[in-house]
Design brief:
Blueprint (H helix, E strand, L loop, with lengths): L5 H6 L4 E11 L3 E6 L22 E6 L10 E7 H29 L2 H10 L1 H10 L1 H7 L3 E4 L3
Length: 150
């Protein structure tokens, strides 16, 4: 995990999505950060697809190899914008494509209600596969935290 400090972040601000939060739990290698409601969510085009904008408080777990953070410390959680779009694709867009394709194809051969049921059932193995490859997604969707200077 690449360690970012605040000065580097200022120069890279266009490429990252930032959420403020407070460290709520620290274990050996994992930090749990409670995210605050973000004012940037109001102006975001993807807020309807983002789970963070729907609620005032969310928790996120982040790997902590540096162990330089303390409990109740205010931090900023950073993620690359392009990774956010990838996450939306794998969580919402691709399952919709699978479901819709299954509905169209199965409606030619089966009754409507069975085709609808089949299109919903096809999502079960998809989300089980996502759960199975959870470690791979965690390596791909790296989230960093920096100490809040404000």
């Amino acid at each position: 995990m690449k360690r970012l400090d605040y000065n580097i972040f200022i120069g890279l601000n266009k490429n990252f999505v930032k959420h403020s939060g407070v460290i709520s739990n620290i274990s050996t290698d994992i930090i749990t950060v409670s995210l605050k409601g973000n004012m940037n969510c109001e102006a975001c085009n993807a807020k309807s697809a983002c789970g963070i904008s729907e609620s005032n408080s969310k928790e996120i777990s982040i790997q902590n190899p540096h162990r330089s953070f303390q409990l109740n410390e205010e931090v900023d959680v950073l993620m690359q914008k392009e990774l956010g779009l990838k996450a939306v694709f794998w969580a919402y867009v691709f399952p919709f494509i699978i479901m819709f394709t299954m509905l169209i194809i199965s409606s030619f051969f089966l009754k409507e209600w069975i085709a609808g049921l089949m299109s919903l059932i096809v999502l079960i193995p998809y989300y089980l596969m996502l759960h199975f490859f959870n470690n791979s997604f965690e390596r791909t969707f790296r989230i960093s935290i920096i100490k809040n200077k404000e």
